Amino acid sequence: MKQINRVHFDEFHTPNYTPQDKVIVSGMGSYVIDQDGEEYVDFAAGIAVNCLGHCHPELIKTLNKQSAKLWHTSNIFINEPVLELARQLTESTFAEKVFFANSGAEANEAALKIARRYACNQDSQKNEIIAFHKGFHGRTFFTVSVGGKPEYSDGFGPKPAGIKHLPFNDIAAFESSITDQTCAVILEPIQGEGGVVCATKEFLASIRSLCDKHNALLIFDEVQTGVGRTGSLYAYMQLGVVPDILTTAKGLGGGFPIGAMLTTDAIASTLTVGTHASTFGGNPLAASVANTVLSIVDNTIFLNAVKEQSKKFFSGLNQINNRLEIFSEIRGMGLLIGAELAEDVTETAQDLIRSCFSNQILITAAGPRTLRFCPPLNIEDKAIEEGLKRLEHALSNVEREGNLDAI
Ligand SMILES: Cc1ncc(COP(=O)(O)O)c(C=O)c1O
Fold this sequence. Notes:
Shape: globular
Bound molecules: pyridoxal-5'-phosphate
Strand order of the largest sheet: 4-12-11-10-7-5-6
Number of helices: 15
Number of domains: 2
Helix content: 25-40%
Mean pLDDT: 97
């Protein structure tokens, strides 16, 4: 049989992605290998998903064991791994109840639906959702309409109503917009897709107190920031604010698809039988892998190591910037780091992802002008050093306004 390759993407796949030219065939730890046997350092981790790197031996062991036991039951018949996962998640967080889904968007869909239902049960007019410019919550039509990039939800017909978008980190705008009609406020503690922008503690504290005043639910979308990414199990644990609802996905399955919505008993009671459901949510394969992920990540030694690797990453990026002056800001928390391109850089983040790929390093973008680094949380020093070396090489010939004048 002829080898399938990148050309077949254009032939057979819907054209809504522009993948790199080479096809990845395997991975180990913080490295992946393409069809030609070339090795890449992975600073992308499948967009903050492979939190324990590729093919972690404990995850392989768990998956193999569960795959020989039970693959799927649906929620008509409960299974052991999902009960264990619900127990682990509630014991480790503020939450008392968990709803399982298969992705971040589905976890957020559940969060937004439960918040609307909770409020509508008290007052049918209390249905307004406040969200933020550049926020990202997934691609279902509800979540993408709540997200703060209209270009992602335009052109699909009438959008869900009752959603207000405000500038991020703007306390005054928030204070003047929240009312008793607000049922929920949703935000990412660090906007990921929006450019790796951290919410200030003051902004979060103000949101929490005004949500309480107006009886609105506070939803933290921790799909990207969760499961150790920022150096604590969930980012809220370092930010001095506890949400009413939290969503988690990405790292939770370490590469196996799973999402979850976490909340309190009082809010969860809104989801009475038949109000919401998922065929695959709580699948035993996904849940068993997530149990192993949590048992490794939710550990002080592991989380402190994330903070240590974060320091090395920031320091390495700052050193590159001292030499190349290519970034106007390097920001983030833990191993979710954004480097914004200096104004005179004429290439986009997407262009630079391609140069990095040619230099055998995987990175992602967070918006048009920010490079995002979200490597495996257990990335070793050698991979950080090697990846940063390749990164510097990839960035050393970037086009800038001055260069263009000279041509
Ligand atoms: C903060 C946040 N929420 C939700 C999502 C959507 O998750 P998924 O792609 O798993 O549906 C993402 C994905 O990037 C995200 O970063």
